[in-house]
Amino acid sequence: MTPNKEDYLKAIYKLGGMETLVNNKQIADTLQIAPASVTEMLGKLKREGLIHYEAYKGSRLTSEGIGAAISLVRGHRLWEVFLMRHLGYSWSEAHEDAELLEHITPPRLIARLDQFLNHPAYCPHGSAIPRSDGQVDCMPLQPLNLLFVGEASRIRRVTEEKGLLDYLQGLGVTIGASVRIVEAGAHEGPLTLDLDGKRVQISYKAACQIYVDETARL
Ligand SMILES: [Zn+2]
Known about the structure:
The protein is of the alpha+beta class. Among the domains are: 5-61, Winged helix-like DNA-binding domain superfamily/Winged helix DNA-binding domain (Arc Repressor Mutant, subunit A, Orthogonal Bundle); 141-213, SH3 type barrels, CATH 2.30.30. It is built from eight helices and eight strands, in the order H-H-H-E-E-H-H-H-E-E-H-E-E-E-H-E. A six-stranded antiparallel β-sheet has the order 3-8-4-5-6-7. It has a two-stranded antiparallel ribbon with strand order 1-2. Strand 1 and strand 2 form a beta hairpin. The radius of gyration is 19 Å and the shape is globular. The mean pLDDT is 94. The structure holds zinc ion.
């Protein structure tokens, strides 16, 4: 499926486009498409008043663009909470279907969903849910692979990508779990973890996509 206008807004938002200029290559990489198609869509978003776009520099969201992006991200993450909490969805299933639902969820439904779920602050994958005024919780995190052997922390967030989510859920990785590096294979080999008291082996690549508290020492 080719990314639509809303996917662009979301990508620019996630790349920091509320405050800073995001360049075309970052957007192309995020959406996994050719830079040429990015240029075309950005022109359209600019004409619709959703972004400020400067050629060769990048794009930043206008206040209208910010509002639209926040509403998409809020809808997405609230649906994920709902699908997992009430319909027994897996990590990756929730992300997949929320990807569809976010595009058809009117503001009223987002507000009701938020209320029904008792205003959750995070999605099931640990990403902060922006509040309706756009405020977002922010915790200093670092990728798990940066911990030293013997060092412990707590898992706070994982990257939302289907294959990775299925792999991690299969290993029993959960948000909030305590984690300690028991052993690290040479040359970016697999990591042996103590995960809530259980020994688990995980690929180095996956460890780069798991985010833990920066300073916690358990
Ligand atoms: Zn999520």
